[in-house]
Automatic annotation (TrEMBL):
Molecular function terms from GO: oxidoreductase activity
Keyword annotations: Oxidoreductase
Stretch forming the signal peptide: none
UniProt GO BP: bile acid metabolic process
Name this protein carries in UniProt: Short-chain dehydrogenase
Annotated Pfam families: adh_short_C2 (PF13561)
Family assignment from sequence similarity: Belongs to the short-chain dehydrogenases/reductases (SDR) family.
Length: 260
């Protein structure tokens, strides 16, 4: 299948590691020009160099914190200065901390809101004027939009908001030929997942391996997913080959979520 990603301009946020990096790599492999960003200049430049080496694609390395409105405006402006338009916007951010309801004060809730929900609003608002017919917007959420995850109340709450936002945007932007989808990782082997397993292990006084064994037993495919497997789904949704999927909330979870 020809995905039609050759020559597209993509902005993938929070992409020096993990799922964002894997998506940037996949889009670059398919011939897109990709702007990547993260808070650490060293990490984002290292990742840009690695993607260039593997794909020969044009990669723009940007530094910024997506929880900050000014940083988002600057990241979008720098992408436009470089390439003049945005065809594909992939909204991603680091996940909020785990913990029970009573462990979070207003500051923690506001931080999660700014990082995981308001960032999507701001990114779409900044990028939209530079997106034409054929544009694609994707947000990385979580399987928790279908089945909340114990101990992740901040994430569970913000992802639900993102899901509502994206579904509404899909309808509003359809007449402009822009497709909008939410892609939801179940358990994909990244640094974030290691941190979550470690936190669960500490809470329960067991080893991270024991946590992983227990989780894997709930995944019909019997393993954590690889970032590349997630990225291939994202690349399809972001591509011209996807011409009729919009407003979808797609799980990439090896069958983990049991809801219909
Ligand atoms: N992996 C999974 O199975 C899974 C499951 C459910 C949901 N998710 C969600 O999917 C998203 C990506 O997860 P991941 O597993 O890829 O995480 P990860 O391995 O921890 O990578 C996070 C990436 O985001 C960047 N980042 C973090 N906060 C940022 C910010 N405020 N502004 C800009 N960049 C930022 C990090 O770079 P810097 O540190 O350099 O900024 C890094 O490149 C997260 O929201 C996570 O909660 C993941």
């Amino acid at each position: 299948m020809n995905l039609g990603l050759q020559g597209k301009v993509a902005l993938v946020t929070a992409s020096s590691r993990g799922l964002g990096k894997a998506i940037a790599m996949e889009l670059a492999r398919e011939g897109s020009r990709v702007a990547i960003c993260s808070r650490s200049r060293d990490r984002v430049e290292e990742t840009a160099a690695a993607i260039r080496r593997r794909t020969n694609a044009e990669i723009l390395a940007l530094t910024g914190d997506v929880s900050q409105g000014d940083d988002i405006s600057r990241i979008v402006e720098q992408t436009i200065t470089q390439w003049g338009r945005i065809d594909i916007l992939v909204c991603n951010a680091g996940g909020p901390p785990s913990g029970p309801f009573e462990s979070f004060d207003d500051v923690a809730w506001m931080r999660a809101f700014e990082t995981n929900l308001l960032s999507v609003v701001r990114l779409v608002r900044a990028a939209l004027p530079h997106m034409d017919r054929g544009g694609r917007i994707l947000t990385i959420a979580s399987s928790s939009v279908k089945q909340p995850i114990p101990g992740l109340i901040l994430s569970n709450t913000m992802r639900a908001g993102v899901n509502g936002l994206m579904k509404t945007l899909a309808e509003e932007l359809a007449p402009r030929g822009i497709l909008v989808n939410t892609i939801c990782p179940g358990r994909i082997a990244t640094g974030r997942l290691q941190e979550l397993d470690q936190a669960a292990a500490e809470r329960e006084g067991i080893s991270p391996d024991a946590v992983q064994d227990r989780v894997v037993r709930q995944i019909p495919l019997g393993r954590y997913g690889e970032p590349e497997e997630f990225a291939r789904v994202a690349a399809f949704l972001a591509s011209d080959a996807n011409s009729y999927v919009t407003g979808a909330t797609l799980l990439v979870d090896g069958g983990m979520v049991k809801a219909l």
